[in-house]
Design goal:
Blueprint lengths: L11 E5 L3 H7 L4 H22 L3 E8 L7 H21 L6 E5 L7 H14 L6 E8 L1 H17 L10 H5 L12 E4 L18 E4 L9 H12 L11
Parallel strand pairs: 1-2, 1-5, 2-4, 3-4, 5-6
Helix pairs in contact: 1-2, 2-3, 3-4
Length: 240
């Protein structure tokens, strides 16, 4: 991959990896081949992002709505996930990536949950890039779950309603303690966030690129970061 020369690098990048199916269709291949190519693109993306000094990445790997896809495709995606996790488990000792998996993981098969637990345990003390992988994830469900947790705390006397503020609410979200994303990238030309990190993206800069995810390269990441660097982040304030 290429080399980033500018020096304002976002600390946390969120990514909606879109376009695997369209990539495969454009090449006359089955959708499964698009998903396989997408995994390779993800691995290259993580390597390059680590070289740039990015501290956190959160990727949208499988949404809660993706369970509604045809059963055959869901099965293919789960088998690919197994293969990916086994591969990452073998190489985890060689890098400094710390893995976390967020979402309704209980909907996944037991053997996949075991692989997730193993890779999280193996990498929990790594000091490099923190990679959050959103699986069976929905932003609305995350917020509802956080609200239920706070309601239980109030009911049990651990917290008063008046004590609940943005900081306390954020501490119940699945991405905690990672900072909110500075930059969201979505590939394939789509321009929506699709129930991803609804709370966390409140002031995130968003860059939408036409590149299909399997073709996403260092050049595309450099472009997105350059776009981010040219934005004026005022967070509701005015410039001095």
């Amino acid at each position: 991959m290429g080399k980033q020369t500018l020096n304002i690098i976002p600390s946390h990048i969120a990514v909606i990896m879109d376009g695997n199916g369209r990539w495969a269709k454009s090449k006359g291949l089955p959708r499964s081949k698009g998903h396989e190519a997408g995994v390779k693109a993800l691995q290259e993306f993580i390597k390059y992002a680590g070289k740039l000094g990015i501290k956190y990445i959160t990727i949208y790997a499988f949404s809660s709505e993706n369970w509604l896809r045809p059963e055959s495709e869901v099965k293919t995606l789960m088998n690919l996930l197994r293969k990916y996790l086994k591969s990452e488990l073998k190489t985890a000792q060689k890098n400094e990536v710390r893995y976390r998996f967020i979402g309704d993981l209980f909907r996944l098969d037991a053997d996949i949950r075991d692989l997730i637990r193993d890779i999280e345990t193996l990498t929990k003390d790594k000091q490099g890039l923190s990679l959050n992988i959103a699986l069976s994830y929905g932003g609305k469900d995350e917020i509802v779950t956080a609200a239920r947790t706070l309601a239980a705390d109030v009911k049990e006397g651990r917290l008063t309603p008046d004590a609940i503020n943005e900081e306390i609410f954020a501490s119940k979200l699945l991405t905690y303690p990672a900072p909110y994303p500075d930059l969201l990238i979505r590939t394939s030309g789509e321009q929506r966030i699709s129930n991803f990190l609804l709370w966390q993206l409140a002031y995130t800069e968003m860059v939408f690129v036409d590149t299909l995810w399997p073709d996403f390269s260092a050049k595309d990441l450099d472009f997105a970061i350059n776009e981010f660097q040219n934005r004026k982040r005022r967070f509701g304030k005015v410039e001095d």
